[in-house]
Amino acid sequence: xxxxxxxxxxxxxxxxxxxxxxxxxxxxxxxxxxxxxxxxxxxxxxxxxxxxxxxxxxxxxxxxxxxxxxxxxxxxxxxxxxxxxxxxxxxxxxxxxxxxxxxxxxxxxxxxxxxxxxxxxxxxxxxxxxxxxxxxxxxxxxxxxxxxxxxxxxxxxxxxxxxxxxxxxxxxxxxxxxxxxxxxxxxxxxxxxxxxxxxxxxxxxxxxxxxxxxxxxxxxxxxxxxxxxxxxxxxxxxxxxxxxxxxxxxxxxxxxxxxxxxxxxxxxxxxxxxxxxxxxxxxxxxxxxxxxxxxxxxxxxxxxxxxxxxxxxxxxxxxxxxxxxxxxxxxxxxxxxxxxxxxxxxxxxxxxxxxxxxxxxxxxxxxxxxxxxxxxxxxxxxxxxxxxxxxxxxxxxxxxxxxxxxxxxxxxxxxxxxxxxxxxxxxxxxxxxxxxxxx
Length: 439
Fold this sequence. Notes:
- The protein is of the alpha+beta class.
- It has helices spanning 68-73, 79-88, 160-166, 171-181, 398-438, and strands spanning 2-6, 13-19, 39-42, 56-61, 103-108, 114-122, 125-132, 135-142, 145-155, 196-206, 216-228, 231-238, 247-249, 269-272, 275-278, 285-288, 290-294, 300-302, 307-314, 320-325, 330-340, 349-350, 355-359, 369-376, 379-381.
């Protein structure tokens, strides 16, 4: 059990990390790169070594504008061998699309020639290609991980997103929490600096750090709490037997999610409402069929609900736009996007809260913003007045409610234990400060 508390003159962030209850230790796997690394240098500064010991290792960082083949040729890898390596690793990674900062590990023989190449392909997975008699022998290896539960509590401050990010909460966890809370909280109007955000989520973490893989990857968000103006929203994740997806509920079994989100992004201001207005570029009055949200270019845009993408392309005055068809005769439109998220195209199936694109300033747009519309049976309606709860799942009852109540009890016990650890750590830190002061 490890515990850590972030403190200062005013404590604004608390974090406790514990081993996930009931999790099993993973079986050992072969691990790439366990031998000591002799140096860690930028590839621009890498030069072919003159006096190296047998099987020396280096970790290189790809510089901006650098070509991988050029790096490998410094170590007696010819163009034909480099192209063969790209081909062999294609099932795991496209070496032609490596970004600046990507780390690779090489093994050199006593003459300074490259004999093996290793690279991280995803979290906790590396691939090693060994050069034997002029041919590459490729194998992948899984690094050992363990599941941990992370409990983080922060003051919202000026931005829930930025405050959570500064506290070390994974981006995907923040986005998931915001998507769930958006059903009940208007992020453009409700939050104050003194509001408190709390989350418990599970993550897989490397048992031993490795330079070719990030340290952890977030998995399930189990508990979300947001206190707004003194009113707490406590939300618990639960999936019943036979259900295909997780949902969040209040402690009494009421579902949190509504059919559609009213605001499909975070950290934005409502710059224009639904209704007739004078168009800022065209110069004449017409019905503004949606809402405009002003925010920074690149702000992630979420799908308002589960559905199928009908359009993800250029839409004239809308610029880059996405149209999604939902159940019950609803459609949603997202316009003036900078671009689309990976995999978003006509025919794609999307889930509520999934990132589908990024805020931009394309088409007939005066400034960076998202134009968001909702249509019911072909008619535009005001997203702020959506009343779609009748389409949402009903309150849990019977055996499902009993099983869910056990989930709530387990999380409440986990919270109690975590608060106790935080208090112990706070008391320890306070006593240490007093001792230093009294010297």
